[in-house]
Write a structure and sequence with these properties.
Helices cover 37% and strands 18% of the residues. With 363 residues, the chain is α+β, with helices and mostly antiparallel strands. The strands form two sheets. The protein has a seven-stranded mixed beta sheet with strand order 1-5-6-10-9-8-7, sandwiched between helices. The chain has a three-stranded antiparallel beta sheet with strand order 2-4-3. A hairpin with a 2-residue loop joins strand 7 and strand 8. Helix 2 packs antiparallel against helix 4 and helix 3 packs antiparallel against helix 4. The relative contact order is 0.10. It binds phenylalanine. Phenylalanine binds next to strand 9 and strand 10.
Length: 363
């Protein structure tokens, strides 16, 4: 007798299993009897016709009629069953190659390879630098990339119109003329404004590093980019001296480039540190003998540093930064430059092109 979809009054898993097994075996028998295209068309209509096909009946008699508690389970089973019926009916067409999974599957085809992602070398180097300072008790502080003149310059002791501002090739946001100068927005030229933000937030003692993106109006070439990254450092406490600065940075450079490197501190100028020093490391390519990388000097300049200028501390006197009582040091290093030296990269632009052939080397 031809199969008809029964009404269900028992929705227990066992009863559902039985009903589904009956339906499957009915279809298996009917598929086996298909001999011609006409047979197949009749089979297709009987099972798949939208009005009153067996699949539609299942929907009405089993799923729609199911009590609330059973709906989820019935829904899942009916869905699976539908897919199975559809495939079975389609592959029953005479002349269709036997559709068993084993026949369709070519195990000699190469698999789908999902390449592993990797940290961008700038992120990787930033994290490495942060890790070195974290081990010395530094925590991480961040600030916005769009800054005010106050944070980027004024609180860093660049007086208005001071020529030191020119060294920073600032990109200003347009249309700010109606605001007082200190509130005007710009793209931060260094991570030093995070020093100010950190001192506003935390009373001394403080030890923080501040990683982030900075902008300068530079024409891109192999060693310049209008966007780059820095890691800033700030330590303020009782009795912090220049030897603490030297020891800390000497240790950090050895961690970064290997215990063989030596450091030297060269007099420099920054408005927010006094005294200021450029930190140089022995050229790790030639070991200090002189080569193309170090322009025959044996030394490579890596970062700016210095003792926090008392005027900078005095901005935060009310928060415990009395220059008579506490002192500190600060430093700022360029992440791309460090990555270039560490990995032998000769063009800063490579960091920003997103070329997978370059990036995958850091996987
Ligand atoms: N902000 C300086 C720069 O971008 C680097 C620096 C940071 C120097 C902290 C001294 C202390 O050039």
């Amino acid at each position: 007798m031809a199969y008809t979809v029964p009404k269900l009054d028992d929705y227990s898993p066992a009863a559902l299993d039985r009903a589904i097994a009956d339906l499957r075996s009915a279809l298996e028998h009917e598929v086996a009897a298909v001999k011609s295209d006409a047979d197949h068309e009749a089979l297709r209509i009987r099972w798949r016709a939208r009005t009153n096909g067996i699949l539609t009946q299942i929907n009405d008699l089993w799923l729609k009629a199911a009590p609330k508690e059973a709906k989820r389970d019935v829904g899942q089973r009916v869905n699976e069953l539908k897919t199975w019926v559809e495939e079975k009916v389609e592959s029953a067409k005479p002349g269709t190659a036997s559709a068993s999974v084993a026949d369709k599957l070519d195990i000699t085809l190469p698999g789908i390879r999902r390449p592993l992602g990797a940290e961008h070398p700038v992120v990787k180097t930033t994290n490495e630098i942060i890790g070195i300072f974290a081990k010395m008790g530094y925590s991480v502080e961040t600030g916005p990339e769009i800054e005010t003149d106050y944070y980027n310059f004024e609180s860093m002791n660049f007086p208005p119109n001071h020529p030191a501002r020119d060294t920073q090739d600032t990109i200003f946001i347009a249309g700010q003329e109606s605001k007082p100068q200190r509130d005007r927005l710009l793209l931060r030229t260094h991570t030093s404004p995070v020093q100010t933000r950190a001192m506003e937030k935390h009373r001394p003692p403080i030890r923080v590093v501040a990683p982030g993106k900075v902008h300068r109006s530079d024409t891109p070439d192999a060693s310049h980019s209008p966007i780059f990254h820095q890691v800033e450092g700030l330590a303020v406490d009782n009795n912090i001296t220049f030897s603490d600065l030297k020891g800390t940075l000497d240790h950090a450079m050895k961690e970064l480039f290997g215990s063989d490197v030596k450091t030297r501190f060269f007099p420099s100028f920054f408005p927010f540190t006094e005294p200021s020093a450029d930190v140089q490391v022995t050229c790790f390519k030639c070991g200090g003998k002189g080569c193309r990388l170090c322009k025959m000097s044996g030394w490579i300049e890596l970062l700016g540093s210095g003792m926090v200028d008392p005027k900078v501390l005095a901005f935060h006197k009310d928060n415990g930064y009395d220059p008579e009582k506490v002192s500190g040091f600060a430093f700022g290093m360029g992440v791309e430059r460090i990555a270039m030296l560490k990995y032998g990269i000769d063009d800063i632009q490579l960091f920003f092109h997103g070329d997978v052939r370059f990036l995958e080397q850091f996987a």
